[in-house]
Structure formats: structure tokens, C-alpha cells
Amino acid sequence: MSKTVLVTGGSGTIGREICTKYSSKGYNVIFTYNSSPIEAQITFDLLDSNKSNMMIQVNLTNQKSIKNLFKIIKKSYSTIDILINNAAYTKNYSSTELLNISEEEIDNIINSIIKNTFLCSIEFIKQVKTSGNIINIGSNSTSTLNASNLLYIACKASIENLTKTLAINYGPKIKSNCILPGLTLSNITKSSPSRFTPILNKTPLNKLCTPQDISQCAYFLSSESNFINGECIKIDGGRNLYS
Question: What is the pLDDT of residue 132?
């Protein structure tokens, strides 16, 4: 029987690569998207059509919406084996701009990272029958302190501690690990490479993280490693060594 993985934020660059990685390994892939049906369809079309795949539009900042997501999964699949909490929202704010950030935007960032990850994790744990894996996507910015804004960094730091407490409280049934990518190659970074030269200069491997680097680590942690649990693994080519 094929195993099943749920990936949140499957229409984005990293989420799409994670989805296709698991699909290539024979998994049924379920992924969520919020406001990009065209991008979601692109991801879906890349999956193995011989498997039972599903894309579901979900508001991941709303508990009722998340509960409904897992009801759909329970009706459609006999089991769910892996949850990858990838979805998140952020926006570039300088330290000065952040002094005037709106309450609505604060909620958007916090809810899309902390609330989303927590709610999906507890619903996943309730639905797992025998054993399951949670992989959270964090950020190496918790070490380098260099990201879109300091609120984002604080939220990603909380994901590291959530990862560890999930491992402590729900083992041995659940394994929980976190991936901390560095700046990742994307359409944005490709379009303005000179902007990121200072980061490359502080990266011993002198290159950016790729979506493939992240998907390979996620697959290893969930499907090839039996005894790694409660860990937060940096994938940044050594960038964090300069923090």
C-alpha cells in the first residue's frame, strides 16, 4: 500500500519540489494552496498520475478550515504518514518600517507560521494510526538574524521549539524534525543575483540553497532515517557559521 504525504503550500517553489520528490518515490501526495489555483495545477500536473493525489484550497490560518482539510483526508485515504509544514507568509520590512506595522499584518505573519504549523500538527497527530513524521520548514535566519523582517525570524524560532516539544510529547508514535534552509534559489534570486552577493560571500560553499536540497533532506528525515528526532538541521552551505 502506498504511503501518503501532506504538504502545505504546495503551489510555491519549495512546496512544489517537495511534492514532486515524494511523488517520484511512489507516495500519494496531498498538497494545499491558498490563492494560486494556476500554480497549484502546475504542481498537480507534475505528480505521478498513477497515484492518488489531491490538491485542496485551504485557509491555513483558520482552525475550522484546517479541521475540514483533515476530514477530507480521512474520508479519502486509509492512512496519512507524513506532514510537511511548509506554508508561510512574510513580507520585507526594514527595522524602521516595522515600527509602524499594522496589527492585521502582524496577525498575518504569526498565524501563517505559528498557528498554521501548530494546528496542522495536532490534527495530523490525531489522525495518524501507528506512526507518523512531521517535518517543519524553518529558517537559518534564526542563527544569521538576516531575513525579511525580525517578526518572521521570531516566528521561525518558535517553530524550532515546537518541533522539539512535539518530539518529546508525542514520541514514539510521532517523529518531529525541522529543516532550516538558507536563502533559496528562486525566480527572485535568479532575477537579481548581485543583490545576494554578500550572502554568497559568507557561504563557504559559495552558492544558494536549492529547493532540491530541501526536498532531499525532508525525504531523508521522513523515509530513510529511523532515529533522528527533535532535530533542527541547517541546510545553508555553512552560512550559519558566520552568524
Answer: 97
